[in-house]
Structures are given as structure tokens and as C-alpha cells.
UniProtKB/TrEMBL annotation:
This is Phosphatidate cytidylyltransferase. It comes from Geotoga petraea. GO terms for biological process: CDP-diacylglycerol biosynthetic process. The chain crosses the membrane at residues 7-26, 32-48, 60-80, 86-108, 120-141, 147-168, 189-210. It catalyses: a 1,2-diacyl-sn-glycero-3-phosphate + CTP + H(+) = a CDP-1,2-diacyl-sn-glycerol + diphosphate. It comes from the Bacteria. Pathway: Lipid metabolism; Phospholipid metabolism; CDP-diacylglycerol biosynthesis; CDP-diacylglycerol from sn-glycerol 3-phosphate: step 3/3. Belongs to the CDS family. It is an enzyme of class 2 (transferase). It is found in: Cell membrane.
Length: 284
């Protein structure tokens, strides 16, 4: 089996194993909180690790920092639910501010080198906003629109990645950003957008057939598909910039064929808030 075929095999295998687990976690809100918190911790660990490779003997300390970031996703999940129930006396988003405070305090107490402290605090700010807060938008989608909408948002991103990958592999000639990601092509983006549009239409048809409200019609599906294509691409290129800056090929190696967790969710992080935003501006 060639290298490319072997890599594709592991990509498919890990997807077949993990996707059903992830999707079914959306059905119950507590399991969604557990899923988001776990992913946030794994992804933030990877980001903190690659941003501070010089600190080889401080694994426990970096794990403490990771726990703070993960706690922001966990507590926000419960806080936003309490806010919607009218029993929280403040905005749930204050959780992320407090997480940054405690994260920075730990760095100030433990790290004496200014350059390294700056690196860790920068990594913490990015992890809390870019990873924890952005991914936590799944809570808002779930609470306001139900778990079927959350699954649609998630799987649409997976479908875009798959369609874009194969379209780019077959037809890709015009590169989007050769400096940051030589394999990303406009042909892949267009193919991914078309495939995502068809998936949304089919998903909404099946959901309507099963008795659920059909929320995204054919016209709105065009905007959602274009949003997924553009925002997913920005998410992928953003993470590519981070990896090139830190001189690493992958954010980690936990997922066979995919690299790290952050490699797999780079598009999800950017698309999820935009998906919720589109739902809100359409007054859905």
C-alpha cells in the first residue's frame, strides 16, 4: 500500500470509528458538554505544547494550564444553560474572562522568563478564544435549535472537507494560498461547496420526513454551503499559519491519518460561530 493510499486508509478508518461517537454525543446536552470539553482540552494541550516546545520538563504545569482552558468550556456549558433558564445573575461569557485571569496568574507565578511567559499567555488567549469559545457555540446551537441542527452543522463541515479533498485531488489546479497551504485549490473549494449544499438539502428533507421542522430551505442552504466553504478554508489556513510559525507538520499525532485534534477541528472552530450567526440573522 503506497504512502498516499495508506494515509487515506487511516483517514477513512479513524473517521468511521470517531464520527458516530461524536454525532451521538450531540443527542443529550450533558454528553455534548463532555464532548466539547474533551476536544477543547486535547486541542488546547496541542497548541500550548507546540507554542512552548522549549519547556520540555514542565508537562505537569502545561497540563494545569490545559485544565484551565478545558474548564472554561465545561463551565460555560452549564452557565449558558442557566442563563437561558433565567437563574444566572451575569452573562455566561464571563467564564472565559475568568479563565484567562486564572491562566495568566498561573503563568505569572510559575514562569520567570519574560519571553516564555509571553508565549504561554499568548497561547492561552488563543486557546480560550479560538478553541474554547468558538467550539462552545455548539451549546448555543443545541439549546436554541435542538441537537439535529447541531449535527447538521457538524456533519456539513465533515462533508465539505471530504468533497473538497476529492474534488481538489481530481481537479485542483488553481491554488488558494500556495504560501500557507499548497494543496488547497479553488476547484476543491467549489466542489466542497456543491457537495455541502446537496448534503444540507438531503439532510433537511430527511429531517422533515421524520417530523422535524425544516429550518434551512434550498435558498438559505446556498448561503450556508458558501459560508461553510469559505470559513472552513480560512480555519484550515489559519491553523497552517500557526504550524508554519512553530515549525511543526501536525499539531499532534493522536488521530491516525489526520495528525492532531487541532488539525481535525481547524475548520469547525471557525464555521461553528458563523453557523449560529447565520441562524440568528435569518431570524430562524
Amino acid at each position: 500500500m503506497g504512502i498516499n493510499n495508506k494515509n487515506l486508509f487511516f483517514r477513512v478508518l479513524s473517521g468511521v470509528v470517531l464520527v458516530p461517537v461524536v454525532v451521538f454525543s450531540f443527542i443529550l446536552y450533558p454528553t455534548l458538554i463532555g464532548l466539547v470539553t474533551t476536544i477543547v482540552m486535547l486541542a488546547s494541550w496541542e497548541f500550548i505544547e507546540i507554542s512552548s516546545l522549549e519547556l520540555k520538563n514542565k508537562k505537569i504545569f502545561k497540563m494545569m494550564l490545559t485544565v484551565v482552558v478545558g474548564a472554561s468550556a465545561l463551565l460555560y456549558g452549564f452557565a449558558i444553560e442557566a442563563e437561558y433558564q433565567g437563574i444566572l445573575p451575569f452573562e455566561a461569557e464571563i467564564v472565559f474572562y475568568l479563565a484567562f485571569f486564572f491562566y495568566s496568574w498561573l503563568v505569572i507565578l510559575k514562569i520567570k522568563d519574560v519571553r516564555m511567559a509571553k508565549k504561554l499567555i499568548s497561547a492561552g488567549a488563543i486557546s480560550i478564544l479560538y478553541i474554547s469559545f468558538f467550539l462552545s457555540n455548539f451549546y448555543l446551537i443545541n439549546i436554541n435549535y435542538g441537537y439535529t441542527m447541531g449535527i447538521l452543522a457538524l456533519v456539513s463541515i465533515f462533508m465539505y472537507d471530504s468533497f473538497a479533498y476529492f474534488a481538489g485531488l481530481s481537479f485542483g489546479k488553481h491554488k488558494i494560498s500556495p504560501n500557507f497551504s499548497p494543496k488547497k485549490s479553488w476547484e476543491g473549494l467549489i466542489g466542497g461547496a456543491l457537495g455541502t449544499y446537496l448534503f444540507i438539502i438531503v439532510y433537511e428533507f430527511i429531517r422533515g420526513f421524520l417530523g422535524y421542522e425544516n429550518i434551512i430551505g434550498p435558498k438559505k442552504a446556498i448561503l450556508f454551503a458558501l459560508m461553510v466553504a469559505s470559513f472552513d478554508t480560512v480555519g484550515d489556513l489559519t491553523e497552517s499559519i500557526f504550524k508554519r510559525h512553530y515549525h511543526v507538520k501536525d499539531s499532534g499525532s493522536i488521530l491516525p491519518g489526520h495528525g492532531g485534534i487541532l488539525d481535525r477541528i481547524d475548520g469547525i472552530l471557525i464555521v461553528t460561530p458563523a453557523w449560529y450567526f447565520l441562524l440568528r440573522i435569518f431570524w430562524i
